[in-house]
Amino acid sequence: MEKSKEKKYKLHEKNLKYYENIKKNFTKQKNYDRIENTEVNKVESGKHKKRINYTVMIVSDSPDGGIHPFYLGKTLVTILLALIAAALVISAGVAIHHSAALGEMQKRETDLQSMVDELTAENQTLAAENSELSDKVALLSDTVTQNEETKKEQEREEEERKIPSGFPLAGPAVILESSEMQTEEAEGGETDNEAEDAGENTADAETDLTDGEPIVVFSASAGTKVIATASGTVAAAEPDAAYGYRVVLDHGNGYTSIYRAASEPAVSEGDEVERGGALYEMQSPEERLGYQITKDGALIDPLELLEVYG
């Protein structure tokens, strides 16, 4: 308790000294101002204006700091005020400049954002167009593929139409002779009576219609049409010593088909004939048709290609 009281007493004494110092300094300053004003009044007459002085006092919060007065003249105060005003103006200018720069940066940022938005929208549009074009390309590719397949199918069908595989008569007919029949007869042999009968039949037919070549001989009634077994061009329409007339069709793929009959042909050399087109019309009962096929210039057995037979 005694230490606490002693501490408070010392603090009180220190505060008293602090306030006494402030009072002494203030009194000194007051006396100085009074003396200065008196001297000024003595020197200057009533005609001159009173001189103005400014006093700046710095007071410390420390008990031992005291008061430190500074005496400033009017000129120095004016300079200080001018400097302060200049500093304020400069600060204002800097603030305005920074504000303008900030506004410009914000404007540029807004413009850049607008450009980004436009580019994003354009990119989305291009992506949609690209997707649409991709779909169109895929559709066109499918169409081209289908067209190619269709073209190939048409070419295949066209090639098939040019292969002489059809039946050469547009009606019922009987096969009288063929290479196959000749082979079977050669393998089975003939008796003397059969040979005599065959000789008589050959004599009645006036000539051998096969001539030992691959051929099929048909017999059909009057009015039956001889038709093209495949599409082609009439390469020849001319007389034939064994049958009467002969029509040769070139099918353009190495195949030719030959039609030999007694009736006059209904086509001429150079005519284009579709499969099933009429070449003759049988005029007499049981008129014969000799039908042959060549492949690359060599005769082949027509029965190998006849669809109705095979």
Describe what you observe in this structure.
The chain is of the alpha+beta class and 310 residues long. Among the domains are: 2-72; 174-304, Glucose Permease (Domain IIA) (Distorted Sandwich), CATH 2.70.70.10. Helix content is 49%, strand content 21%. It has helices spanning 2-43, 74-161, 179-188, 192-204; strands at residues 54-59, 67-72, 174-178, 216-220, 225-227, 232-240, 244-250, 255-261, 272-273, 278-281, 287-295, 298-300. Strands 3, 4, 6, 7, 8, 9, 11 and 12 form an eight-stranded antiparallel β-sheet that branches. It has a two-stranded antiparallel ribbon with strand order 1-2. A two-stranded antiparallel ribbon has the order 5-10. 15% of the residues are buried.
Short description:
This protein is α+β, with helices and mostly antiparallel strands. It has four helices and twelve strands, in the order H-E-E-H-E-H-H-E-E-E-E-E-E-E-E-E. Among the domains are: 2-72; 174-304, Distorted Sandwich (Glucose Permease (Domain IIA)).
| Uncertain runs | 190-208
The percentage helix is 40-55%
Strand portion, in percent? Answer: 15-25%
Order of helices and strands: HEEHEHHEEEEEEEEE
- The DSSP helix count reads 4
Shape: rod-shaped
CATH architecture of the domain at 174-304: Distorted Sandwich
Q: If you compute it from the alpha carbons, what radius of gyration comes out, rounded to the nearest whole angstrom?
A: 67 Å
Please, what is the CATH homologous superfamily of the domain at 174-304? Glucose Permease (Domain IIA)
Q: What is the CA-CA span between the terminal residues?
A: 143 Å
Q: What do the pLDDT scores average to?
A: 79
Query: Briefly, what CATH class of the domain at 174-304?
Result: Mainly Beta
At CATH level 3, the topology of the domain at 174-304 is Glucose Permease (Domain IIA)
What characterizes the major β-sheet? 8 strands, antiparallel
Give the strand tally: 12
**Global structural class:** alpha+beta
